[in-house]
Amino acid sequence: MTTLLLPLIQILFFYLIPFISISLYFLKLRKTINSEAKLKLPPGPIKLPLIGNLHQLVPGNSLPHQSLGRLSHQYGPIMLLQLGSIPTLVVSSAEMAKEIFKTHDVVFSGRPVFYAAKKLSYNCSAVSFAPYGDYWREIRKIVMLELLNSKIVQSFHAVREEEIKDLVKTITISTNSSSSSTSGFRIINLSELALSLANNVVCRVAFRKKFNGYDDHENGKSRFREMLHETQDLLGGFCMSDYFPWLTWLNKFNGLEVRLDKCFRELDSFYDEVIEEHLDPERPQTEHEDVVDLLLQVQNDPNQAMKINNDQIKGVLTDIFIAGTDTTSATIVWIMAELIKNPAAMTRAQEEVREVAKGRGKVEESELSKLNYLKLVIKEGFRLHPPAPLLVPRETTEFCRVRGYDVPSGTRVFVNAREIGRDSKYWDNPDEFRPERFLESSVDYRGQNFELLPFGAGRRGCPGINFGVVLIELALANLLCSFDWELPHGMRSEDLDMEEASGLTMHKRSPLCLVAKLVYP
Ligand code: HEM
Fold first, then answer.
1. For ligand 1, what atom is nearest to the CA of residue 468?
2. Is residue 17 part of a domain?
3. Overall number of domains in the chain
4. Is residue 462 annotated as involved in ligand binding?
5. Does 88 fall in a domain?
């Protein structure tokens, strides 16, 4: 019996399924070609059979936003590519971004469903991955009103201040121990410390536990760190079926499904543990509620229009971990790297924070509004290094005409925020880090000025902007207040690697390692 079944299964997997998939692909292709012939589509490069323009996305060592930026110089600020079998619109100018985020915002408010994201966001229960519609509207409203409004973000100030105090203490202890250095000063890995800071703040705000509190002591590993890292890796990695949906069956055989299942099970049991702890009536009360407390209150509130279940709570927690940690730490690192390369800006920012912190040696959250120059530094950092260079992909929900071009329903959309932030049409010497350019300008990053879009814009613009920015401001203010920063001995600022890494968030490719010298108040 088994000897008969085996060849049959082999025929099915190796011949029949690929044959059916390829036939379906060509049938769809014929239908698409027929309907495209009648449309006035945006310009774009010639497509190869089967893969379309996929080969042009990552030529050589380029990252997708860099390759797309180069293509847009050739084909214009609105271009259409075919990535695998997915029509993809790429928007690369402020004018075109305004068209899609303002004039056609509703049509452009869909999100494509990616294979890994669907599973890890509890079947798209997270705000960021939910399809445009009633569920997304309600869950976003809950997140905006109950979790991320400015009063609640402000209520977490003690967590931020404590974590930054710990960060300064860790660096101070390192600077006092000269054991591991060659020049008498210890080298600080700021990339690692900034990531720990963001993770600790988000974990304490989300469920009142330190990021390092979930350690696997037996194996000496941080269970949470590994889980978060794997989730980000899966969400940011390349998945064939996101470009060739007819190849979804491959995920069962290429190891992806197994990896995803394992990651999901770990994440899920971790969330279950956290929710159970929060439901324990014996749990000690504290002054402030955390995100899980707030979501459980929403779940039990009879006045809420939508009843949320535990999977939806877990989806929102995934939102907060994924969207709120790497983006913030990457920004802190890029800005510190730019300041070290631009000593005049560093000195000006330090003079400002030290004046505000006079005699106390630290900046408090209530004093951030006085740091005008630091705010310009942060704007300039976001312009040059938006942590999500292509934002989060959108998808058109129906047919639409943009500046005379036809954009079919279901088109995937990338907005190249990094390219727009360096467009010489809006920015003088666009590659220069020059915070003073904002002195005479009211341009801001909150989604109203389409030449600066690190948080996106429109209905689906980032709801965590206040949460992210306040941590970035407070961290930078205190790093600049407490320490003088230098490059390691013998290194020149031209040697500092400013290359970008691939992944869900645009990190600096190599960690930022600097020498810190404690400044006494
Ligand atoms: C430097 C920090 C951050 C940056 C640069 C950033 C950037 C972005 C971008 C570009 C988008 C896509 C916007 C669009 O499609 O127009 C987004 C969406 C989102 N962000 Fe952020 N983000 C940051 C911090 C945060 C934080 C701290 C949270 C939560 C605590 C958060 C939660 C979200 C959520 C839930 C969405 C999805 C919104 C939707 O689809 O309706 N973000 N973010």
1. 27
2. no
3. 1
4. yes
5. yes
Q: How far is the C-alpha of 141 from the C-alpha of 137, rounded, in Å? A: 6
- Indicate which residue's Cα is closest to atom 7 of ligand 1: 455
- For residue 515, the SS3 value is strand
CA–centroid distance, 404 to ligand 1, in Å, is 30
Backbone dihedral angles phi then psi of residue 518, each to the nearest 5 degrees: -65, 135
Relative to beta strand 86-91, strand 412-415 is: parallel
Nearest Cα residue to atom 16 of ligand 1: 456
Domain range for residue 134?
Answer: 39-518
Token output for 311: 């999977």
Determine the distance separating the centroid of ligand 1 and the alpha carbon of 390, expressed in angstroms: 12
- How far apart CA 284 and CA 293 sit, in angstroms, is 13
Distance from residue 327's CA to the centre of ligand 1 (Å): 9
**Residue at token pair 């082999």:** 10
Residue 6 covered by a domain: no
Q: How far is the CA of 432 from the centre of ligand 1 (A)?
A: 26
**Number of helical H runs and strand E runs in the chain:** 18, 11
Copy the structure tokens of residue 455.
């948080």
218: CATH: 1.10.630.10
CA 358 to chain centroid, in Å, comes to: 35
Query: Among 199, 394, 462, which residue has the most ligand 1 atoms within 8 Å of its CB, making it the best to mutate?
Result: 462
Give 405 Cα–ligand 1 centroid separation in angstroms: 29
- CB 353: neighbour CB atoms within 10 A? 23
Q: Is the distance from CB of 248 to CB of 115 less than 8 angstroms? A: yes
The pLDDT tens digits along the chain (521 residues) read 445 555 555 555 555 555 555 565 555 655 655 566 689 999 999 999 999 999 998 777 789 999 999 999 999 999 999 999 999 999 999 999 999 999 999 999 999 999 999 999 999 999 999 999 999 999 999 999 989 999 999 999 999 999 999 999 999 998 876 544 445 578 999 999 999 999 999 999 998 777 665 555 455 456 778 888 899 999 999 999 999 999 999 999 999 999 999 999 999 999 999 999 999 888 887 767 899 999 999 999 998 889 999 999 999 999 998 998 999 999 999 999 999 999 999 999 999 999 999 988 999 999 999 999 999 999 999 999 999 999 999 999 999 999 999 999 999 999 999 999 999 999 999 999 999 999 999 999 999 999 999 999 999 999 999 999 999 999 999 999 999 999 999 899 999 999 999 988 999 999 999 999 999 77
CA distance 30 to 37: 11
Is 8 domain-assigned? Answer: no
Q: What is the pTM of this model?
A: 0.91
Task: Give the residue, by CA position, lying nearest to ligand 1 atom 18.
Answer: 462
